[in-house]
Amino acid sequence: MLALPVLVGLAFILPTWVVNYAQVSLGTGLVALGILVQMRAGLVSFGQGLYFCVGGYSAGLAGRYLGVSDLFLLLLLAMMASGLISLVLGFLLRRYREIFFAMLSLAVSMILFGLLSRTEALGSTDGFNLPAATYLGWKPEDDLARFALYAATCLVSVFCAIALNRFLNGTIGYVNEAIRGNELRVEYLGASARNAVHITYVLAAVVSSIGGVLWAMSLGHVDPEMTNWTTSGQFVFVSILSGTGNIIAPFIGTFILEIVRVYAVEFSPNTWQMVLGTVMLLTIIFLPKGLWSLIARKRTSGKQLRQPALAAAGE
Amino acid sequence: MLTMVAIAVDGLGFAAWLFLSSVGLTLIYGVMRILNIAHGGFYALGAYSAAWAIGLYTQGGGPIAFTYLLIPIAAFVAGVIAGLLVERGILRFMYGRDEVLMVLVTYAIFLILEDVTKLIWGTESYVSYQPALWLGTVDIFGLPYTVYKFLIIGVAIVCGLLLFWGLNHTRVGKLLLVVIQDREISSALGINVTLFFTVTFLIGATLGALGGALTAPEVSVVPGIGSEIIVMAFAVIVIGGMGSIGGAMIGALIVGFARAASVHLYPPAELFVIYLVMAAVLAFKPYGLFALAESRKI
């Protein structure tokens, strides 16, 4: 809760470009948050870009064909769309674990990528532009509009983070951790692992679509690249970089990644992917539990976070 | 009728290309349990080095027949060098980690390889059509096809048979099957598991590079071809059951014909029909067509 006024206040202190990156990071950070929630259950979604894209496109489509530009209405529409899609797909995906979950989620997102890339009415691979946001009938101009969107992004992100924190500390959150530990045991204890996974999946989808809306609104543009596997891969990268320790971690991770990327692109336009890959490798080698483990190690000694099961060779 | 013929021939062509590009992936997964995203990087390296070598050679003006030797040589050199660097340099420090984490490690390597190819060959496209042009075309029911396409189909069949024979009928292959069954016991029995891993990875990487090298004369080699092939290769091996070479063959055929059918019957579906097929197969066979849930064989 404390984070909200701080985040909004930052807009007055920091230069505009930092605020812009912060805003973009909050959008993509929400997607990483969606991945984090699933990772707690040991599931890595390599297709979270799907819901990022569903969010962006449903906002775009609503703006284009229904003339809706109210941010809160757009968010509601995106949540409904992603909720519905993930509910249906969840029946398929909840049966899979580990690498198969990763692959199947990737496949589903690539279907959407193929569909959107070939739909001429929606601008094929170029995508299309979004209208400027309004807020319950209020339509700010220029600088004020930028600030209003940033403030609204902060508000929604913080709200999502709090809600998800509640979720992770609730029943299903703990069931998820148990699923990662030993799924069979969960079933013997009388809880349905599949239901827990299904609910988590839908929740992650909704959060990611919110991220998609906010990201699309801040850029004013959507394109199919949002659901390409390389985009999803980067979301997973952020979650690894930041670690699953805390709900704030993905936001910090995204912001750091955004900065790394900007500087890498600036200094060596042709090798920024190489820099990204190297950072990723180093993170995996030296910080298996992500950047957050640096903070967590300092802060708590008693409240140890459970070590992710490092599967022995050959299992 | 004409469409049916076109679908059949194109389907076979796609299938051969897909099989060559994905069999290395399934081999590495079967033996090492690593879903190697960097495979797309090997594919791109193979394609670039072949296109570059052919271009350099034809500028020199030698007989075109020798370019057919250049393709496997380029693939072998690229695959072995890159494979050795990746396996000995990075992967061997990661063995025993979580499977999903290994996916991320190879994803990082893939990103690095993408830029390595850009650093070596720049960002412009390479064209090396000579080998495909030189063989000319044949008419099948009035439809012209390059003979080169059939060459690729032949190479795919030979590669498949060689792998099958090598695994099941040679001493080394049988030892490899033992390693796959239980690597701790096999290392206790005195089998050099580390060596098997390295060699398997090199073979897999070289096969990936060969897939790229053989494709080079048919397309223009541009940045990003690695990321296109890798998701398709995933689809192929997931459909067939990961780690199964026969599965990769069947998966390649299914995906190849599905793609050819969509190209000729309903072009807009071309980009996503592969994933549609994959989702449909997985909905009924969660672990692919030929995968054994527990003791996976290759």
**Structural class by secondary-structure content of chain A:** mainly alpha
The string of secondary-structure elements of chain B, in order, is HHHHEHEEHHHHEHHH
Overall average residue pLDDT of chain A: 74
Give the neighbour order of strands across the main sheet of chain A: 1-2
Strand percentage of chain B: under 5%
The share of residues in helices of chain A is over 70%
Could you give a short account of the major beta sheet of chain A? 2 strands, antiparallel
Spatial strand sequence of the major β-sheet of chain B: 1-4
Percent in helix of chain B: over 70%
Question: Which chains have the largest interface?
Answer: A-B, 47 and 51 residues
> Helix and strand succession of chain A?
HHHHHEHHHHEHHHH
Number of helices of chain A: 13
- What is the terminal separation of chain B in angstroms? 38 Å
Spans where pLDDT lies below 50 across 5 or more residues of chain A: 301-315
* Bulk shape of chain A: globular
Task: Describe the structure in brief.
Chain A is mainly alpha-helical and 315 residues long.
